[in-house]
Amino acid sequence: MPTVSEALLAYATAKKVKASSLRRYQSVLRTHFGDWLERPVSELKGPAFAEHCHLFAQKNGAAIVELGRGLVGSLLRYLHAVHGVEIPNPFIKLGAAGLLPLRALPRARKLKEADLLVWSAAVDKLPELHRDYLRLVLFTGLRKNECGSILREHVDLHGSVLLIPDTKGGKPHTLPITESMKEILVRRCVACQSGTRLFERLSVDHVAEMALRAGAPAFTLHDLRKLVATVGAKLGLSDAVLRRILGHAPKRADVLHRHYVSLDVEAIAEPMELIQRTLTSHLGQGTPQVS
After folding, report:
1. At a CB cut-off of 8 Å and minimum separation 6, what does 107 contact?
2. Is-above-0.90 flag for pTM?
3. CA separation for the pair 11, 191 (Å, rounded)
4. Which of 104, 191, 255, 263 is least enclosed, having the fewest CB within 10 Å?
5. 194 to each of 51, 115, 132, 190, 241, how far by Cα in Å?
């Protein structure tokens, strides 16, 4: 039998888990299940592991418990499928007995459209690299790491297409390069060499904090992504269009949008421009023009 650590690596390889996600999973196991990492997986059958899971659920918040229980459940299902080892999942019994914390609620959005004028004034005080990053996230709705990992060769200025190869869903994502985005992307491409990231010297985990210190209202980078979705919904854009812009996959049961509806880059160019014009008007840089 493999050890728990070896099983995680084998599972990650079989499922083609991204390197960043694997590092996160390994960190969770080291922090909360460290004593079990180098033990054979067969030892997870015993009452000691069940008790450990119970204590883990009692001592930690809902979000980390959800991640831990999901990771343990996935590993146990993998071991059963590949090695034929059936190990009861302690979290199933704990849940049935009401011994797990309630599921974590989505974090409320702090930044509103009305806050963007003050937000923009604070962002303008930052170095150019940081300003460009924050505004590109606002205009595209990209996740922080998706935007931070863009390479120079991912920017096709001639074809007006931005490629994001490494996404949360594991599939490449493309966006049209609008006029609002082009100014930023041209500036960043000129400032970096081929094979390097557009935002090479920027820490995506600290850029929001820099803006806060410069006077921005409370916000997270994910708030900017939520603003794109909110503005798009207010403008009456369809769920399919918003999912395509944000890189969200339809639900498994949604056969129509999973297997039939396919929107290319050209199909979302005009909706993205409309969202960006609306956001720009809140930044105090123009008035939205409805087509």
Report:
1. 220, 222
2. no
3. 40
4. 255
5. 53, 37, 19, 10, 32
